[in-house]
C-alpha cells in the first residue's frame, strides 16, 4: 500500500466514534466471504476530505434472529440474552475500541482527516484505508482488509510534493478473524477465539507491513521526509 498525505487537512472533532459506516464494515468483515485476490503491494493516495460522523449504539439489547441469514445478531457492542444479561463482548466492542482509542486520540480535540485511494482502484474495494493526523502530531492509518488473504502493504506520504515515511517506533494494532470469531447461534454461543486487540511495535517504519485477512489494522507513528 502506498499512501500520500497532503498537509492541508479539514479539521473535524473525533468524538465517541468517528468512522463512517462502522456497522457496515463489521458486517462485511464478520459475515461476508470476500473473494481472494492476487498477491501484490497496494498503492494508496491521500487528499483532504470534508466529513464528520458519530456512531451511537451503546445500550445492551437482546440478540435478534434473522430468518434470511439463519443466524442471530444485533448492532450493539455486546452479546446479550433475553434477560438483558451481557454474555460476552461482540465484534463491535473491539472495533470501536480500536477506532476510538488506537486510531483516533481519545477525547474531543481536532483531528485532520485525509481520504485515501489505493492502487486496487475503485472497482476492487477489498482493501481500503483512512488516514488521520492526530492532535498529538502522530499520523494514524486505518486499513480495512475485507479480502480472505493477507495483504503486504507499504505506506508513504506526500507532504506538499515531498515524499515522507513512518520513522522511529511504529505501533501496529489489529483486530480480525484471528482474534475473534462468533458463529451467531444465539446468546448461549460464546465467541471463540476472543483475545481482543493484537498490538505490536516495529522500528522499520518505511518497510512492508502484512495486513491480516478480514481485519481492521491501525498503523500509527511519526513521519519524516524521505532523504
Explain the overall architecture.
This protein has one domain (10-138, 160-225). It is built from 2 helices and 16 strands. It has helices spanning 22-31, 91-103; strands at 10-13, 44-46, 64-66, 71-73, 78-80, 86-89, 110-114, 116-118, 127-133, 139-145, 151-154, 156-159, 162-176, 198-202, 208-211, 215-225. Helices cover 10% and strands 37% of the residues. 33% of the residues are buried. The model is unreliable at 4-39 and 47-52 (pLDDT under 50). With 227 residues, it is mostly beta strands. Strands 1, 7, 9, 10, 12, 13, 14 and 16 form an 8-stranded antiparallel sheet that branches. A two-stranded antiparallel sheet has the order 2-8. The radius of gyration is 18 Å and the shape is elongated.
Helix content: 10-25%
List unreliable stretches of 5+ residues.
4-39, 47-52
Number of beta strands: 16
Strand percentage, roughly?
35-45%
Shape: elongated
Distance between the termini: 20 Å
Query: How many helix segments?
Result: 2
The average pLDDT is: 78
- Compute the number of structural domains: 1
Order of helices and strands: EHEEEEEHEEEEEEEEEE
Q: Quickly give the structural class.
A: mainly beta
Radius of gyration: 18 Å
What profile does the largest beta sheet have?
8 strands, antiparallel
Summarize the structure.
With 227 residues, this protein is mainly beta. The protein has helices at 22-31, 91-103, and strands at residues 10-13, 44-46, 64-66, 71-73, 78-80, 86-89, 110-114, 116-118, 127-133, 139-145, 151-154, 156-159, 162-176, 198-202, 208-211, 215-225.
